[in-house]
Amino acid sequence: MSDIEDSKILSEYSSRDKWLRELFSFSNSTSFSVSPYFCFAMDQIGDEVIYPGSCFDDVTEKTNICFLQCRKLGFGGNAFIRDNPKRIIFLCQETFDYFLKNGEYQEAQNIITHELIHWIDLNRNFDFLDQDKLFCSEFRARILSGQCPDYYTGSNTLLNRIFNNYEQCALDGALSSMKSVDSKFKNWKPSQDLIEKCKND
Question: Domain range spanning residue 62?
Answer without folding.
Answer: 1-124
